[in-house]
């Protein structure tokens, strides 16, 4: 999973506006919500052992993706304070 993190985000989190997830909208929103909740937990638990996972997640935190930041912001605060 860590080796293909960018592809995973493209296929589940809609990180590329040019490649939107297919309908139905409700399923798309559920999938994205699951990603927003799961990825920070993976990084917290496995990030130190999988540098690509940690780097990819840190990159996503820097990218101005409105959806990502809106959903992930409360979790990012907890994750950042745990790694400080």
Give a description of the structure.
By secondary structure, the protein is an all-alpha fold. It has one domain. The protein is 71% helix and 0% strand. The longest helix has 22 residues. The N and C termini lie far apart (25 Å).
Short summary:
This protein has 84 residues and is mainly α. It has helices at 5-12, 25-46, 51-62, 66-83.
How are the secondary structure elements laid out?
Elements lengths: L4 H8 L12 H22 L4 H12 L3 H18 L1
Key phrases:
disordered C terminus; mainly alpha
- The run of helices and strands is HHHH
Overall structural domain count: 1
SS strand fraction: under 5%
Helix content: over 70%
């Amino acid at each position: 999973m860590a080796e293909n993190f960018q592809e995973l985000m493209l296929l589940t989190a809609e990180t590329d506006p040019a490649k939107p997830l297919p309908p139905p909208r409700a399923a798309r929103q559920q999938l994205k919500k699951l990603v927003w909740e799961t990825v920070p937990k993976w990084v917290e638990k496995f990030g130190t052992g999988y540098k690509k996972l940690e780097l990819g997640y840190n990159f996503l935190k820097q990218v101005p993706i409105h959806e990502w930041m809106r959903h992930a912001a409360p979790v990012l605060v907890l994750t950042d304070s745990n790694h400080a």
